[in-house]
Write a structure and sequence with these properties.
Strand order of the largest sheet: 3-2-1-4-5
Distance between the termini: 63 Å
Helix content: 40-55%
Radius of gyration: 21 Å
Largest sheet: 5 strands, parallel
CATH architecture: 3-Layer(aba) Sandwich
Number of strands: 8
Structural class: alpha/beta
Shape: globular
Number of helices: 15
Order of helices and strands: HEHEHEHHEHHHEHEEEHHHHHH
Number of domains: 1
Length: 333
């Protein structure tokens, strides 16, 4: 079977095999075919997710959640919720820009220290996990789903999954640099393991946090057909190395050891095909806790409650975790 081509007379997506990446005309046609297949399968996954007349989206205004929101708007009345610190949130900055051209409604939710403190209490009640990073990630999910519930929304979609499926994390690029070439399987194996573990490590908490507000959270990228197909695509098209002398197609380039890489390359091609704005497609990856600005607020709350010195007394420097551990203990009383 030819790479990227579906079997004749079959509705099944194309089989995927590996090849040495050089973006000549033949390979460009392969990328076009794969992009079409990914878009089709993802569209079906989103359609299956949109079982309600009104659907909410947890929107960071990154490429992943924006794709989901755009596709969902074809099947349901979509309201997206973007949560962030009023003075220091990249997510809100991009969400405001997106609201000027989006085909769906975007609610901008500005939060302060009181909002974060209240949300943190509820998040750790649900997760029973005083980890600072996981709690910071959970806060926007809690606040967004609470607002959605008050609007009568019972089902929300989110953009979780592509970082694991398409090489969105910096650690994958770092591993490629260490390996020196794509032929070694370490990067692919890292992604595979992360996909296998992502429900237990992350998605289960996200779903439980939203469920505490009476909202069901769904993950279209992790639906079986899409996940299976995405996993077959070689790492060369997920973390694309820009050949020397070639202009990068996207501006979100990582330069490491003299080489240029574009993370989630094939998903950015899907976004182009869907019509996602260029400023979203080219947005650099920012972890949820940083994009929302929750991490800085939580850090300040812990310091204001003297947990920097309390942690030092315990011989620790992770004072935010110490603060959350104390808060979790209080919730059990």
């Amino acid at each position: 079977m030819e790479y990227g081509k579906a079997e004749q007379g079959s509705d099944k997506p194309a089989a995927v095999v590996k090849y040495n990446i050089k973006m000549d005309d033949t390979k460009k046609s392969v990328v076009t075919e794969l992009t079409k297949n990914l878009k089709k399968i993802l569209n079906e996954a989103v359609k299956k997710s949109c079982t309600e007349e009104k659907i909410g989206i947890i929107l960071s205004a990154g490429i992943d959640s924006t794709i989901i929101a755009q596709l969902a708007s074809h099947f349901s009345e979509v309201t997206a919720y973007s949560v962030g610190a009023a003075a220091d949130s990249h997510d809100l900055e991009f969400a405001r820009r997106l609201s000027e051209c989006a085909d769906f409604k975007i609610n901008i939710i500005e939060i302060n220290a009181d909002d974060v403190f209240d949300a943190v209490r509820e998040v750790i009640k649900v997760t029973k996990n005083p980890n600072a990073v996981k709690t910071s990630v959970g806060v926007p999910f809690y606040i967004a789903s609470k607002h959605a519930a008050s609007d009568g929304i019972k089902v929300m979609l989110c953009g979780q999954g592509p970082d694991e499926l398409f090489g969105g994390y910096n650690r994958y690029v770092e591993r490629i640099k260490e390996d020196g070439c794509y032929d070694r399987m370490n990067s692919s194996e890292m992604m595979k393991k992360d996909v296998e573990n992502v429900y237990e490590s992350q998605l289960k908490n996200d779903a439980a946090i939203c469920a505490s507000n009476g909202v069901e959270l769904r993950f279209p990228y992790m639906y079986g057909d899409f996940r299976k197909y995405a996993m077959q695509i070689p790492v060369e098209l997920k973390i694309y190395e820009v050949p020397g002398g070639e202009d990068a197609e996207f501006s979100c380039v990582d330069e490491i050891a003299g080489k240029k890489f574009i993370r989630k390359f094939i998903l950015r091609k899907v976004a182009q095909d869907i019509g996602i704005p260029e400023f979203i497609i080219n947005r650099q990856k920012k972890a949820a806790q940083y994009g929302s600005g929750v991490n800085k607020i939580l850090d300040k709350i812990a310091r204001n409650h003297s947990f920097k010195s309390k942690a030092r007394e315990k011989g620790r420097n992770d004072y935010v975790n110490v603060f959350l551990e104390d808060l979790l203990t209080q919730t059990k009383i």
